[in-house]
Amino acid sequence: MDPVATWGLTPLAGADPEIHDLLEREKRRQRRGIELIASENFTSFAVMEALGSALTNKYSEGMPGARYYGGNDVIDEIENLCRARALAAFRLDAAAWGVNVQPYSGSPANFAAYTALLNPHDRIMGLDLPSGGHLTHGYYTAGGKKISATSIYFESLPYKVSAATGYIDYEKLEEKALDFRPKLIICGGSAYPRDWDYARLRAVADKVGALLLCDMAHISGLVAAQEAANPFEYCDVVTTTTHKSLRGPRAGMIFYRKGPKPPKKGQPEGAVYDYEDKINFAVFPSLQGGPHNHQIAALAVALQQTMTPGFKAYAKQVKANAVAIGNYLMSKGYKMVTDGTENHLVLWDLRPLGLTGNKVEKLCDLCHITLNKNAVFGDSSALAPNVKNDPCIGFDIKIA
């Protein structure tokens, strides 16, 4: 047979047995173990089918209807469908909200939003990493070392949780905001097990003239299922990953307000939101090249699935499971951060036991239970991400 004509037709097992074996081993690991890492989830066969489709072959720089390559009629339909489903999944009016579904993942989505909304060295405030925030929210170490690009290119000041309760200290946040005068306040986190008071954050943002952005990466599936507070009621921009509680592929989305602004003192009559063009331009061409079309199609599939009764029941059960295991552990005398949870996250404070998250993580690995260590606010070891002595184990309870 002609080797050129038959190139690429061999299945993975024959084309690359080594990689095929590794994939099978990882598949067995996921099936055999109990996967409790809150930032991971099991996606559907339909999503994986879209990810492995011919769409990976196509280049489509630009937005639907304004591409820099030909042959994008089908790609345009797919992306437009994905955008429509994204708005529908979160019950958003297309006249008041728009969405960009091209970000490759959550961190690029966040930085694209910052690039669109801010100038270099503008001031931002986000939840401190040891308090449960994310690296992309402006984290730098206690010694002043800038860890993320967000803290390198913008001037950041973190707000924190109360050392006594583990809850966000909104009064201290407001005090800091009045003094620091940020242009952007970021809410949302990676290890915060409680709902957010978006109304309070909106009031603070308005008081200092800041925009309010929510990174709902961890809780987006719960928001879609109406099992978590809704950031869209109060925020100007909302970003998210799509593979955590949303159960989609690894991708990102940026939602933004559009259309007329509500009447406000000191605001010109007829003012409109101007985020759409800025955000689209920040994603491409400022930070990315062509979008990953197989990813966007897979996301469209996942968004359709979030609107089914089965997904809503799943999200409700995930939350109930997390509450149940947190309550059970506390009934045995163990300490949970914030004394429980209101979402899918459970954070077990190991300091009273004299243990580290690293040791418990490794021990659970031996039992085929996968979870991850986290920092706890106020602990001296929590000076940088991924330190081996983080004194907390974070996990969630999912049913697949």
From TrEMBL:
Biological or metabolic pathway of the protein: One-carbon metabolism; tetrahydrofolate interconversion
Domain of life, source organism: Eukaryota
A Pfam family hit: SHMT
Recorded catalytic activity of this chain's protein: (6R)-5,10-methylene-5,6,7,8-tetrahydrofolate + glycine + H2O = (6S)-5,6,7,8-tetrahydrofolate + L-serine
Keywords: One-carbon metabolism, Pyridoxal phosphate, Transferase
Name of the protein described by the UniProt record: Serine hydroxymethyltransferase
PROSITE patterns registered for this protein in UniProt: SHMT
CDD domains reported for this sequence: SHMT
Span of domain Serine hydroxymethyltransferase-like: 14-385
Family assignment from sequence similarity: Belongs to the SHMT family.
Top-level EC class: transferase
One GO MF term: glycine hydroxymethyltransferase activity
Cofactors (names): pyridoxal 5'-phosphate
Function in brief: Interconversion of serine and glycine.
Modified residues (N6-(pyridoxal phosphate)lysine): 244
EC identifiers of the protein: 2.1.2.1
InterPro entries for this protein: PyrdxlP-dep_Trfase (IPR015424), PyrdxlP-dep_Trfase_major (IPR015421), PyrdxlP-dep_Trfase_small (IPR015422), Ser_HO-MeTrfase (IPR001085), Ser_HO-MeTrfase-like (IPR049943), Ser_HO-MeTrfase_PLP_BS (IPR019798), SHMT-like_dom (IPR039429)
Gene3D superfamilies documented for this protein: Aspartate Aminotransferase, domain 1 (3.90.1150.10), Type I PLP-dependent aspartate aminotransferase-like (Major domain) (3.40.640.10)
A GO BP entry: one-carbon metabolic process
